[in-house]
């Protein structure tokens, strides 16, 4: 008997010759003629896993669909969705990932165990992170910290790495302290990942010079990560927005020189950085270049709500006017 493994589960099949040209290998035909339904399903699943292992995406998906037709149990059908997701993540096929996640959620409505449900959270979190929805990714990752079993995607250290990175740009200071900084599951692992502990704690402790130093050390890891690499520049901007906003939150006005000293950079660098973020609407402050001072102008929540209401009201009136013209015609 041969064992088909490679991280996709373990299944035993008869050790008979199998050519890629064979549409129906002899051991599958034998199972269909002489064995029961479960053995037939296992044989078809073994063929699916073979195609996955050699990277034949089209044939793997086709064979997984055949296997699904011979599968009754909801849990086993969920496992087939997970195999599909693994293949989709390998090829970064986001359309297939999205459809598979929706399919998995529909299967859970028919019934599913908590272990598979928690696994799905990690898959969905990885999809959200890969599609730049860091807020939802952080929420899903944090929900899965104590129940992580998705080792077929990545090890637990990598999972914590993703959790910390997404949480820093998604959570407010209080939530970051409660869910990440003091989380025992994160504390047991974070020290194994170079620069990550200093990156997280220096941000929370307002040690901005240490934060920038740790951030520089982490950039290479982020660049080399297959899921984060496409969003490297975006993530860099978001992190700097978070740290600059946190610093400015404590002041009504502060000199540019004092801010540059706190971050361990030059005045010209801070001036150039803040100019870009202010013009993009990321920071609510203005630069008095003559006096060398930064003045914060935090938006009034009530005024912002009033402006939003006026804007939506104008949009609604325009739609009503267009509709009335159509009705008159």
From TrEMBL:
Spell out the SUPFAM superfamilies in the cross-references.
TPR-like (SSF48452), Winged helix' DNA-binding domain (SSF46785)
Q: Which GO terms describe its biological process?
A: proteasome-mediated ubiquitin-dependent protein catabolic process
Record's protein name: 26S proteasome regulatory subunit RPN7
Family as reported in the entry's similarity comment: Belongs to the proteasome subunit S10 family.
Keywords from the named record: Proteasome
Organism encoding this protein: Salix udensis
Q: State the Pfam families in the record.
A: PCI (PF01399), RPN7 (PF10602), RPN7_PSMD6_C (PF21154)
Q: What is known about what this protein does?
A: Acts as a regulatory subunit of the 26S proteasome which is involved in the ATP-dependent degradation of ubiquitinated proteins.
